[in-house]
Fold each of these.
Amino acid sequence: MLRIQDLRAVLTENGEEILHGLSLEIPDGEVHAVMGPNGSGKSTLSKVLAGHPAYRVSSGSVLFDGREISELGPTERARAGLFLSFQDPVEVPGLGNLDFARMALDARRDAEGRAPVSDAEFSEAVDRAMRLLKMDDRYRSRDLNAGFSGGEKKRNEIFQMLLLSPKLAILDEPDSGLDIDALRVVAEGINSARSPERSVLLITHYRRLLDEVKPDAIHVLAGGRIVRSGGPELAEELERSGYDGIEGKA
Amino acid sequence: MSEARRTLPWNSRPVDEALRERAEAFDRLCAPDFAPVRRAALERLAEVGIPTARNEAFTYMNPAPLFRADADSWYGAPLPSPPEETVPAGPICPHAMCVARPDGGNLLEEEILRAERTTDPVELYALCFADRFDWVRIPPRDEAGNPVVARLAARPRPVAEGRLSSSALRLRLDEGSAAVVEILPVENDVDGWSHLSLAVELGPRSRLTLVGAQPPMKRAAVTSSICVEQAEGSLLEFREFRGGSPLARGHVEVHLDGEGARCELRSLSTLRDEAEQHHHVRIFHHAPRCESDQLYRQIVFDGASASVDGSVQVDRGADGTKSNQLIRSLLLGDKASAAGKPQLLIFADDVQCDHGATHGSLDDEELFYLLSRGFAPDRARAALVAGFAQEIVDLFPECGARKIAAQWTRQ
């Protein structure tokens, strides 16, 4: 699904290199976790993959579903089936939460040559996702993330993911700031989205999310490159020795 | 009368003979009952002077087109007030045509006093040619004694070619009364000038929602001057949408005279092409524990320009004041311009006042968020602009003004 080879990315503003030859491969249907210390480039990786204009790919390649996407804009990447769940989603007062979700869904369907979603179909999909994520009805009438708590924003990101059914979901710290109960709900949402046709790149600091969402592989990102990859047991090693220990062995 | 209401810290030029002659000719021809009011306005205008571009109150707008004195000016044109046949039936409010206050007040004396303390030269100029005043009184209960929320609409005179078309509405809410008043849009987009003069007295614990929406005008100059005096515990909710015109200015002046009075102003301007919209807002906290809350939003496309010149003055003794003033402008054209000048003048000790102004294009992170969900760039920008406006539109009560604001925002 995703093959990143020797990816180097720089800040558009001043050319400073942030990712230094990162390589990573996520096969169809797998969940891969990327862990790493603060400032290692985890969020940068997610934004580079989604096409944030603050970053520019200087070399290397990003193949998504067999297609090179590093020169595409964020709209095209999203329409191709890539979804980024933001660590700190923006608030847009005045833009209704469900209006936004519906417009996003129609954009995706338009890219697939499908007709706009019908009222009944949309309503059913919304009800299903809200039930799964234990979202109360107030979400329907609120504006996009406006006045949401940190936990509500995280749920809303997963809610959008469930509606849009992307081929690749990049989830940037969907667990940060969540209490235990909320973490379980978000994890349940992620697990429900697992399928042979969908891959997940899960960025996290902590092992506790990986107790709920079992990854197929774990990668350690440090200094702008992957320094270690392994199975789920790598999380336990990180818990014992910390990132310093892992980097030392790399 | 407080000194603040009389002081004019501007440079102005004197009223010239042409204007005086014009006003006197008008006196001889039109509505002789109101001649004393017009004379009071002319004398006050002579006192404050015709503003120039150097006047502080016209920092962002050149007033010369309104006060031009050349051969093609209002002075040289037919008499400023439209001939009777172009005057509509008046405000559509059924109570509006009374000429004497039901409570026995002397309306003419009140108008003369009002003219004598007016500081807005645009208002004074229009009052020099006022030929009609409509008064409305809102009692707290209907004839059966039940409390009511009165719903009224006032229709300004349409613009007439080459003329000043002035409308004056006076509104009083009795103690404990409540009303929703809609100012209907000015009609007839020709090369003329429309001015609305609105003076409101809010009695103790009364509540007024004042709402208006003006679609854009291509040719007409549109000005208004709204003065609200609030007694203790009263509430003013002011909602407006402005589409701008070649020359558009709104003067709003609120006097929080009674303890615990509160005003909430929400304004949205959406301007395209070469349209202008200038807001001049003055809030006076005269009494303790009053609150004022202002939010002005401007969406400026193409080569349009917008400004908000707003000040909040807190008098000595007005302790416990809370005031918030925020101006936000979205600039969406290479030649679009916006200016904001929030000011605080505080003479009391115990106050909480915030103010700020931001002008810029759409937020890059918000835009990226929408793009990352598959929105095409144009669609994403449109959705963000609509959201920026919708926050204000949502505060409009259900009425025609809300529909107009929503319509012009969507475009």
Amino acid sequence: MAIDMNMPILVVDDYKTMIRIIRNLLKQLGFNNVDEASDGTEAFAKMQANKYGLVISDWNMEPMTGYELLQKVRANSDLTRTPFIMVTAESKTENVIAAKKAGVNNYIVKPFNAATLRSKISAVFGA
Amino acid sequence: MTPNKMLSLSSLIETHNKKSHIMQSLLDISLSADSLKGKDGESCTVLHDAIGQLRPDQMRRWAIPEAIAELNEIGKLNEYSVNLIMEKAESLMDHDGAMDDAMEVLQACSFQDIAGQRLAKVTELLETLEERFHSLVHETGVRDSHEAMGEEELEIERRRKEQILHGPQLTGDGVSQDEIDALLGA
């Protein structure tokens, strides 16, 4: 399946530097339609207002974590099918299993590079 | 507790807050506890409880070693990242017109040296504090007070457990990207 390079992507992270890095990596991969949110609450509000083709989210944020965001997204009938990649420094097995149970599409451990991001996005879209 | 004894404890806490001489304050508390032995049972109990609320055993067994491990990890990550940045900046220097920018990048990397020295300083302080807590527990026989955990702290702890918030893993503690892929079958 070909990936729509113009799909809107929502990047969620409480560190502006990380958002900037992910934006640049996505740009390098050819994705230019990128929006951002600084935590789960803002992300969920944006997801209800706009349709995104992919969400790339950090885990450890307040007031709403990436894990809570994932659970809310999967529990919402309008958003439940939105591809969701967790990009986080949380790399305990229990985190990965919890994310899998909650319905994450892929999981990237920080630090990572453009090749890893590309391969995980490709895997999510079966490309 | 007599007003004088209360004043004495308050002044210790004031010293701790104002000057951040944590180790000295702990030592003072420990010495005061020794001097009160056999003199005033009530004062001793209050001081004993105050020390217990510092949870010195938890500090030396878990909190301080974890803080030291985190600082060491920061040092390693800084070093790794700076080496990578410098390597790329050096290769950019070969390109026409990029020399000045590459030089600025290299110069900015000098933060690692200063940051490393500061980290080493704090690590040394924590190691000394760890030893002092060990002595405090050993000398006074005080047990950690679990009543010291306030509502706010309990709420933070509950949320950490509920949301599985560990923070970044130490080297070798978490799972690798390959292991994550295997777990997800991705």
